[in-house]
Design a protein that fits this description.
globular; single chain; 3-stranded antiparallel beta sheet; binds 1,4-dihydronicotinamide adenine dinucleotide; 41% helix; binds oxaloacetate ion; 6-stranded parallel beta sheet; alpha/beta; L-2-Hydroxyisocaproate Dehydrogenase, Chain A, domain 2; Rossmann fold
Length: 314
């Protein structure tokens, strides 16, 4: 039997979607279908063709197709959903909930039809609630519906720690738990540089500043860009998750998963450390938390619950 290449569909060919497509191709993780609305079919085809034509220069053979036709997404192994609107300065991610819920639901109806065995990764904001909306519409098992927040939030946190200590980002480890909002929970006790706990290397007031900068890290970029939100680091985060799945790497990454009792929460999609492998989320790790950490996670869970509740009437 011929060995098949993996197929990855990205719905939403805007900043995050197109950047993700390029990064997936650069790593030759599979063939890429970049899909957007019919009104943007030509620009989507143009982006895909432009990326394809970078292949001979960069040395990748991934096929990249731009389309608005869901039949092209048939039997995808992974579907990444970036469709929706992004926030502008002065907005919170939660302000996007009504518009993006409609978009995510309509996208998921198509995905359920054409790629019923796929593993779906959601990026659209507010992402914890959008992952719940996707799960509800797709009807897939919970291991195959995953939201992206923690890889990005942790990457920002690790960037700031590496800058503070002037060390390689490769030696920094950390974890950010909770919802993808300003009350997310960077776990200082589980953060280290070359195995050395950061609280033995950085003064408490500087750690507090790094934690706060991480929490509002998305907003910092929104403020600088002026007309949209981050896309390079979000795309890199999606690619890391896709790679963990496609290569069955069993990576331990913070992802948005359905919690059914873990950390004391039920019926809630929120960021927790999980094992990502060939079947999607293969395990959720429950870390021991101090009372203070648990209180911070409870606060974040409350925020996620209130934005997710908006969807129950839809
Ligand atoms: N979870 C996270 O960590 C992050 C989430 N985001 C979110 O990702 C989303 C996308 O961000 P960007 O790519 O910067 O926005 P963008 O505006 O550049 O691209 C969004 C694309 O979605 C398309 N789209 C809209 N409705 C669609 C539909 N029904 N079917 C197919 N495509 C559709 C638009 O035409 C547009 O091309 C936003 O909601 C943003 O807030 C962005 C960065 C990080
Ligand atoms: O901030 C935003 O709106 C986009 C996002 O989720 C992030 O960059 O973390």
């Amino acid at each position: 039997m011929a060995i098949q290449r993996s197929k990855i569909t990205i719905v939403g060919a805007g900043f995050t979607g197109a950047t993700t497509a390029l990064m997936l191709a650069q790593k030759e993780l599979g063939d890429v279908v970049l899909l957007d609305i019919p009104q943007l079919e030509n620009p989507t085809k143009g982006k895909a063709l432009d990326m394809l034509e970078a292949g001979p220069v960069q040395g990748y053979d991934s096929r990249i197709v731009g389309t608005s036709d869901y039949e092209e997404a048939a039997d995808s192994d992974i579907v990444i959903i970036t469709a929706g609107i992004a926030r502008k300065p002065g907005m919170s991610r939660d302000d996007l909930v009504n518009t993006n819920a409609g978009i995510v639901q309509s996208v998921c109806e198509q995905i359920r039809r054409v790629a019923p065995e796929s593993i779906v990764i959601i990026l659209s904001n507010p992402v914890d609630a959008m992952t719940w909306a996707a799960y509800r519409t797709l009807g897939f098992p919970k291991n195959r519906v995953i939201g992206q927040s923690g890889v990005l939030d942790t990457a920002r946190y690790c960037t700031f720690i590496a800058q503070e200590l002037n060390v390689s980002v490769e030696d920094v480890r950390g974890f950010v738990l909770g919802g993808h909002g300003d009350d997310m929970v960077p776990l200082v006790r589980y953060s280290s540089v070359g195995g050395i706990p950061i609280d033995t290397l950085i003064e408490p007031d500087r750690i507090a500043e790094i934690v706060q900068r991480t929490r509002v890290g998305g907003g910092e970029i929104v403020g600088l860009l002026g007309n949209g939100s981050a896309y390079y680091a979000p795309a890199a985060s999606l690619v890391q998750m896709a790679e963990a799945i496609l290569k069955d790497k069993k990576r331990v990454l913070p992802v948005i998963a359905l919690l059914e009792g873990e950390y004391g929460y039920r019926e809630l999609f929120m960021g927790v450390p999980a094992l990502l492998g060939g079947t999607g989320i293969e395990r959720i790790f429950e870390l021991e938390l101090t009372a203070e950490e648990k209180a911070a996670l409870d606060k974040s869970a409350d925020s996620v619950r209130s934005v997710t509740a908006v969807l129950s009437s839809q």
